[in-house]
What we know:
alpha/beta, 6-stranded antiparallel beta sheet, 6-stranded mixed beta sheet
Amino acid sequence: MATGISRKASSQTVQKQTFDNHAGIVDNPNRAAGLIDMHPARSKEHSASPEKGAMEEDGVIRKIKIQGYRIHKNLTVEPNRKFNLIVGANESGKSTLMEAVALALTGRINGRSVSEELNPHWFNTTVVEEFIKKRASGVPVSFPEILIELSFEDLPELQSLCGAINSHVPTAACPGVTMRVSANPEYATELEEWAKSPTSLLPVEYYRCDWRSFADKELTTRPKVLATAVINSHTVRTSSGIDYHLRQILGDQLEPAERAQISLEYRRVKASMSETALNAVNTRMSSVHATLHSRPIALAMDQSARTSWEGVVTPHVDDLPFSMSGQGQQSAIKISLAMSRHAGRAKFVMIEEPENHLTHTSLVTLLSRIESLAGEQQQLFVTTHSSFVLNRLGLDALLLMGNDVAAKLSILDPETVNYFKRLPGYDTLRIVLANKIVLVEGPSDEIVFERIFQDTYGKRPMQCGIDVLSMRGLSLARGLELCAALNKPITALRDNDGVDPAEHRGLADAWLKKGERELFIGEVAHGKTLEPQLIHHSGETLLRDILGIAAHADLLKWMSREKTEAALRISSASKKIVPPAYMLEAVKFAHG
């Protein structure tokens, strides 16, 4: 098996080198010398050979499985041991992944139990549509379900969660928890009656939520060993001054004896109110006979559980209530509390877009704090759209969210991994975050492509949600491989360089997919590069007029020497060029 993998990787490496060498591209290790690896030790850890064993590479959560929950029809993620930087385009499911993990760890969402928050929109729309179609055609399929399953590392403190009641194939015993939302058999008759005229909104009133360990024991409250902190924009500010997640974080900072002492003192304070401030009022009211049997009315402080100290004690920052602090300050405080090296610190910390509401300086400080506070037995999940966060916490930690895919860089060819590590994070993020992407070889290709797109559809590509990225001499093949790993639609263009386009496509065939990822190349007879292709299709007369080049000048020589200038003049000209055939095909493919 190892030999087969080695040969495949070697073959892909040669393939990419050949593909890029045709374009005159050479990977230069010093190209991105300005990018400093902030975590050389971590880089070594993640490049370790398989022979060292899977246990070294697995985190506290070894595997996340999500089926039928919101955007995720069937997603499996194997997170990193420590840092997990989750990046992806809008609607790729980053927040849903975080929400699902928190749901399975705590049994709560938005501070409320699963059964209280359950609604029809939790269910994956594709799964529901398939169910309705099959039922309509007479196929007796079962009702849609939601499954969120977390498998943990086999640690001593997690043995109470250990068992084999899970979806592992083949069957394997390990610690873990499962959150399942399924049709309640007690309402089988009602469900079948509803299914005779189903709608896209499932009758969740007839569903049940089942939270269990892999030992098949029902969970009603979060096990202490699964201490979890959730920090996001939705939990930063609340009208009550302190939200559920912060209350949970603060609770984890207190020892049981401390909690008991605070509770006792709070009860004494409330009791003293009856003897002091309320005493005069009660004396006056004792003469009022307004109750049955003429028993007097008196006021006293409520000593029931609903008025416990947790609901009235709130943190202050520089004598200012926490809820009145800036959102960036609130988020930073929550992160610090959650990651504190206190004995009761959270084992799992989930942070959504830490860059929100923070200045660059504050973000640098916060990231430094995250790095310094992270413990060896603490697992972090961080979503971000920031290239700075990406570069600071490291590309090794990347989880790239695609279409029901969460890919690590490690699934790519090792040389491709090293290649992207040398790139500025912004370029990597553009590829990952784009819904649709067009890869071209240089700035002149990018400028001309955008003009042809605008002439064809009356809009710039970005207005249609299409990001055009110039690789600027970088490896087009690496970009293709990354997009293929993410199952991301891509339009790629390149010069033929005097080589039959079929040969180029053959070298890139492993990453192409008809109708989704295609490579467009001009015919050799029309010119090796963009400039002769433009002259062939538009003609010298039109191009000289657009570019302002005199008749005696060598048009091809000038365009080849002044590539970017020629492209800019074409882009701003009032007259339209006749687009090269391969570029027009690429424009139509990208637009869809």
